[in-house]
Amino acid sequence: MTIAVIDYGMGNLHSVAKALEHVTHENVIVTRDARRIRGATRLVLPGQGAIRDCMGELEKTELRGLVEELLARQAKPLLGICVGQQMLLDHSEENGGISCLGFLRGEVRKFPTDMRDDRDNRLKVPHMGWNLVHQHHEHPLWAGIDQDEHFYFVHSYYVDAADDATVFGTTDYGRVNAHVAIGRDATFAVQFHPEKSSRAGLKLLENFVQWTP
Fold first, then answer.
1. Cα separation of 162 and 195, whole Å?
2. Listed residue (92, 89, 128) closest to 109, CA to CA
3. Is 195 a catalytic residue?
4. What's the pLDDT score for residue 113?
5. Are 70 and 78 in contact (CB under 8 A)?
6. What pLDDT shows up at residue 119?
7. pLDDT at position 118, please?
8. Partner of 178 for a Cys bridge, out of 13, 146, 156, 158, CB 3.0 to 4.6 A?
9. What is the rounded radius of gyration, in angstroms, for the C-alpha atoms of the chain?
10. Is 59 labeled as catalytic in the residue annotation?
11. Using an 8 Å Cβ cutoff, are 193 and 81 in contact?
12. Catalytic residue among 57, 94, 149, 195
């Protein structure tokens, strides 16, 4: 049993791998070898930085086609993290607009520059730090995690999914309701960083390791 963290040059790869090792006795590898990725029992697609760079590196490492094939087949569980979530959508507004993998319908949108809370206080962009996540639909990865639990975020763009059935978690930041957990079939993806989210984040990773879609 092997969990492969897909290494296309972008993302908090080793922190994610260490967190996974903490919650499982399964073999965890960080790799860009297509054979090892195909042979893994579970996959993690991380991402960090600008989405144009992430998509570009996915192309440069010749892993885009493999990732698209694995998403289409849905033969094994896959967890997307941060930009690894955003990449699953149709399109992102970042970097002047860029097409993404199109696995799930929807857009990645930029937080407004003049973000305000309900008391009209100015909010910072990027959205950075702890915020609660509301479980919009039930999912096995929420098992043992309290409703409105706090997770750790760092992002300036957020997912706006087109199909409510694919939205499993939301977070309010100012007047924006961001879709921070999305999925379909054997794929689940989150905007927050489970590897930085203390007990709740480790529990989500543990649930992923045990998940049989």
1. 27
2. 92
3. yes
4. 84
5. yes
6. 82
7. 81
8. 158
9. 16
10. no
11. yes
12. 195
Separation in Å, CA 135 to CA 26, 89, 140, 147, 170: 28, 20, 11, 6, 7
Active-site residue, 193 included: yes
Tokens of 45: 């697609």
User: What pTM does this model have?
Assistant: 0.96
Q: Which of 94, 127, 193, 206 is catalytic?
A: 193
Structure tokens at 132: 């609660």
Angle between helices 198-210 and 13-23 (to 10 degrees): 70
* Parts of the chain with a pLDDT under 50: none
Contact 186, 76 (CB under 8 A): yes
Q: Could you give the CA distance from residue 123 to residue 112 in angstroms, rounded to a whole number? A: 10
Q: What does residue 125 show for φ and ψ, rounded to 5 degrees?
A: -125, 125
**Tally of CA atoms within 13 A in the half-sphere of 98 that contains its CB:** 17
Cβ distance 128 to 82 under 8 Å?
no
Query: Considering 82, 94, 127, 179, which one is annotated as catalytic?
Result: 82
Structure tokens at 31: 């790799």
